[in-house]
Each structure stands twice: as structure tokens, then as C-alpha cells.
Specification:
homodimer; transcription regulation (chains A, B); Tetracycline Repressor, domain 2; 2 domains; 237 residues; Repressor_TetR_C (chains A, B); HTH-type_TetR-like_transc_reg (chains A, B); Arc Repressor Mutant, subunit A; DNA-binding (chains A, B); DNA-binding transcriptional regulator, AcrR family (chains A, B); mainly alpha; DNA-binding
DNA sequence: ACCTGAACACCGTTCAAGT
DNA sequence: ACCTGAACACCGTTCAAGT
């Protein structure tokens, strides 16, 4: 059986990723990638189609609307949390370890997808009590189980869930914003004018600007997280 | 010189808010109102024009682009903070009182503009260290002055500013989200199907659903705020 | 000086038609 | 079964033209 040339494997040297076939998962992944590259504003059914080597209209066989596309992209991205080996779906070394791992996992996810994260933060969830950035029944269940098993009352577990959510949301949204993420244009041409703000009227800002511009996000995160855990510890019975 | 009738004063009794004249401020206020009514997604140059009794093209005499319109709306809304008599631009009864008033003022503002708040939270600011939800050099200066005057070191004041920002952002974004705000459609027709999620696979959620649906946002806010102040107190020298 | 009509390039989405 | 072409209603934005 000589195989002098395989006829399907040939990549023809096209530089972009090939188009193995259209399906929902592939469209969503391409969408996530597109947003990470150009920002949510530029994601268009037509441009995404082009990206996939297909007419925009073809996407409608797999995705009912642009809104649904965005929701799907958010889902596909947060689903990565399940694949993070550092994050356990149930506590193994106590609830603090569980929460630390979960928090760090979400932070890694946010930093890996700074342009998608604002969508994770602001897209409506399936129920008002399914809060970003967890966004899934499965993780909320996991969270509550971890705490109640550790001796938290039902109410305390719920309170902890809420405090944990808003802590993560605030910190991570600000951290990705500082990376230049936004729901906005990201004008390819001019990557945003240096715009050295006029601080003449703000003496304190002037003298503190350097300090304000330092990136302390990691320390901030760790300290606030630790303080949150202390606070939660007080809720435990 | 008899003046039997003045020719410019007549109001003609039109019922809707009059169109006294087109100007930037009026457009921005109309925009804020529009977003609060229909959601950011529905705000269109053309629809806003119609709302103001004018063709969309006329807006371009005052507003260079839709992006600029959104930024202007955000600005106009946060500027309300200056008009809140409960919020002091400089501390009068100590830094804790100052921070409490500032936090409560921002919460009132968020609750008064639940549809605009996500824009306040996610629109890019003029410098990365000007964080939402304060978003203005003037408030950052005010904040830092309040704390340094109270004996905080420069670094501690900056740390406090960051912690305060992310606390507010997380809490308020989640609170307005629970009110049904989103950067999304708000389909007038169906105000979102009750969508009673299937919880059969999540026993804990099932038994805690009632508790999870309770609105405890005020207590949450107060408790987290108090805990934040405690944390900041530890930074003070 | 201020507003408008017409036009351009681009959207999301539908549907009959092609392969 | 899957993709496309043509079409519709709607955008943001520009600009010459009207009053």
C-alpha cells in the first residue's frame, strides 16, 4: 500500500486554521478568539462568517441570533474552568483551599480572556441568583455544597456565595479593564492616543501618578481574597 | 413704541417636553433617559433623533459619534454625584464618614440608573488608574486627599482607593444586574420568560432556591462596606 | 447658523434557491 | 443536508443642499 501522497491531509499551505466543518462549538470558539483579537464591538455575523470561510447566513443553521452567539461564547469560555486541573469541583483540603483555588482559577481565566471577561461580567444569567462570574448552576451548587459541608449554615453559605461573587467581579473586571479591555472599539489604527491627561488642577494626583500607575493587581487580589476568607470564617458555625 | 403682542414668547401649549433647542447637554440627558427606558442596545442615533423631534443627522452637530454619545451619557450620569447633598467633596467628620457617604451616594446613583450603570462600569476611562465607578480625576483627587489628610501614607491611600473601587464595582454591578439590567435587549414584548430553571440535578440549589432569591442587597452592601472600612483602618498609620 | 435628504457602506435576519 | 444570493429593514456617518 503505497501512499505517495495523502489527499486529505494536505494543508495546501494556507496559513489560517482550516475549515474542517461548520458546527456550533467551532463557531463559538472562533467567536471567542475573534473577540479576544478585535473586541466584542467588531464581532459581526458577517465578519465571523468570513473568518470561518463561509457566508454569514450559514451561521444561522447553528446559532439563532447574535445575542445567542454572545451567550454561547461566554459559556464556552467559562467552561474552561472545568478543565483547570488546579480547580477542584469539590473541596479536598478544606473550604478555604477550595475557595482559593476557585478564585485563582477564575483570575487565570479572566487574564487569559480580557476582552471576553466584560461579557462574562455583564451578560444576563439564567436566573438572577446565578451570579457572574460563576454563571453556572453547577458551580453554584458546588460552592454551596463545599461550604455547607464545612459547617456553614444555609444562610451563611448563601451569604458567602454572594460576597465571593462580588469580590471576584469587582477585582477581575478592574484588572482586565486596566489591560485595555472594554466593550469598545479598540481602533486598530491608533491604539489609543497617549493622552497624557492634564493634572495641573490635581496636585495630589500629580504627585501620586506614578504610584497610581503601578500594577499591584496581584497583591491587591491576594490581600482582598485573604481578607474575604477571614470575613467568611466569621460566618462559619 | 407700542408692543401689542410679543412674537417670541408664545409656547403654543405642546404637551410633550418641548424642544427648546438642540444642544449637547440636552442630547446627553435625553440619551440617559432613553437608555433607562429601553436599554443601551436600543439607543440609536436615529431613534434618539426622533425622540428629540429631529433627524438623526442633526445630532452630529453636537456629538461626533455614537461612542462619544455613550461616553457623554456616562459622564452626565456620574456628575449627579456632585449634586448629592449627602456626599461631601471633602471629609467633614472623618475619613470613615466620608467614605460611607461616598459609597452610599454611588449606590443611590446606581439604583437610580440601573441600565446606565453597566456602562459606567465598563466604558474605558481616560487613564487606567481612573477606575470606575468614580471615573473622574476630581473624585480620585478628593478621595486621596481625604485619606492622606487622615494620616494614611501615600501608598495606603492608593491601596484604599483601589480596594474601595473594586468593592463598589462588584457590589453595584451585581445589584443592578439583579434588577434586570444588562447591556442587552430588554425585549419590550416579553419581559423575559419566567424560565423556571430545571434544578433536578442540583439538590442543594433546589432546597436553597428561596433563600438565594431573597433580596439581601442592602445588608450585604452594609456589611461588606463595614468590613472594608475595618480593613482600611488597618492600613492607616 | 442650524437642520435635512440623499447617499454609502455596513448590519442582523429571512427565505427561496442552489448543490 | 448544508450552504448561498438576493432581499428587507435598519444602522452610523458624510456632505451637499436647503431655510
Amino acid at each position: 500500500m503505497s501512499e505517495p501522497e495523502r489527499r486529505d491531509g494536505g494543508d495546501k499551505g494556507k496559513s489560517t486554521a482550516e475549515k474542517p466543518r461548520l458546527d456550533r462549538q467551532r463557531i463559538l470558539e472562533a467567536g471567542a478568539e475573534f473577540i479576544e483579537q478585535f473586541g466584542p464591538r467588531h464581532l459581526t455575523m458577517r465578519r465571523l462568517g468570513t473568518e470561518l470561510g463561509v457566508e454569514a447566513m450559514s451561521l444561522y443553521r447553528y446559532i439563532p441570533s447574535r445575542e445567542n452567539l454572545l451567550d454561547g461564547i461566554v459559556e464556552v469560555v467559562i467552561d474552561e474552568l472545568y478543565k483547570d486541573p488546579e480547580v477542584y469541583p469539590e473541596p479536598r483540603h478544606g473550604w478555604q483551599d477550595y475557595l482559593l483555588r476557585l478564585a485563582h482559577g477564575l483570575r487565570r481565566l479572566a487574564l487569559a480572556h480580557p476582552q471576553v471577561f466584560p461579557l462574562i461580567a455583564t451578560r444576563p444569567t439564567e436566573a438572577p441568583w446565578v451570579r457572574p462570574p460563576l454563571r453556572s448552576l453547577r458551580w453554584v451548587e458546588s460552592f454551596l455544597k463545599a461550604l455547607t459541608s464545612a459547617g456553614f449554615s444555609d444562610q451563611a453559605a448563601v451569604d458567602a456565595y454572594r460576597a465571593f461573587s462580588s469580590f471576584l467581579l469587582g477585582h477581575l473586571l478592574l484588572e482586565v479593564a486596566a489591560m485595555g479591555a472594554d466593550v469598545g472599539p479598540v481602533d486598530e489604527a491608533e491604539p489609543r492616543p497617549p493622552r497624557s491627561t492634564d493634572l495641573s488642577d490635581y496636585p495630589l494626583l500629580q504627585s501620586l501618578q506614578e504610584r497610581l500607575s503601578e500594577d499591584r493587581s496581584e497583591q491587591e487580589f491576594e490581600e482582598a481574597l485573604e481578607s474575604l476568607l477571614d470575613r467568611l470564617e466569621a460566618l462559619q458555625n
